[in-house]
User: What shape does this take?
Amino acid sequence: MKMNHVLLAALPAVVLFSCVSPKKLREAEAKYTQLNGAYLEAQSKLRDCESASKDSANEFGRKRIAYESKIGSLADQVGMLKQNNTQVLDQLKDLSVISGSQAESIKKSLDNIGSKDNYIQGLQSAIARKDSLNMQLVMNLKGAVGDMNDQDINVKVEKGVVYIDISDKLLFKSGKYEVSDQAKVVLGKVAKVLNNQPNIEFMVEGHTDTVSFRKEQLLDNWDLSVKRATSVIRILQNQYGIAPTRMTAAGRAEYQPIADNGTDAGRAANRRTRIVILPQLDQFFKLLEKPQGQQ
Assistant: This one.
């Protein structure tokens, strides 16, 4: 507006001095041209400023809308997180209630598991001690019989049971059940070890091959196997002082072979007398009751 006033004020001056010299007129025209250019430039800048302000306002409005949208989205996310946290807290509360109500039951279950584990460990320890006693017995028996041929006498442990196998040819003559003098010496060595273990009970088993046998008062292999078992027991009782309450006589005939009866060697192996150290359950449970480390 100031620029308009300046121009309006300049026009009368130009008219007033229209009669001035051409030089001054040209100077006045030049001045007018300069002022008019300045005016047009000022108007252009004013429009640019107005346009820039409008653009800035629009840009600000757009950014404001964008930020408000983003804030709204973040608010929704915060709301969802709060909801999830509430659900988790509720679940944890429920879990704590369940754990509290079942804590005693769980404790009892754990105590039972611990007791069973201790029992199993004690049982394993007792079995190990029993196996150790069996191995000691085997070593004593092998030491007592010396370097005799394993085909004549064999001491072994199978499934926790001690067996003493004595061949038929060492104990008896063919078809007989009277114990030979040589066999009595062997039985004496075995009896010495058994007498050192007064709590051990055992069974003497007679075994034959499959060849049918009948002679005088002996009806068959059953008779022969039982007669041989009772003959051995009488020797152990009467000559070596083993209590009869510790012994059992049994005849197995040919029905528990350890070799093929189709060969001479197999039949010879099957004709044997076996002393079985009987496992005593009451002794085993006594071992189980002993504290670990004791024998």
User: Anything to note?
Assistant: DSSP finds seven helices and five strands in the chain.
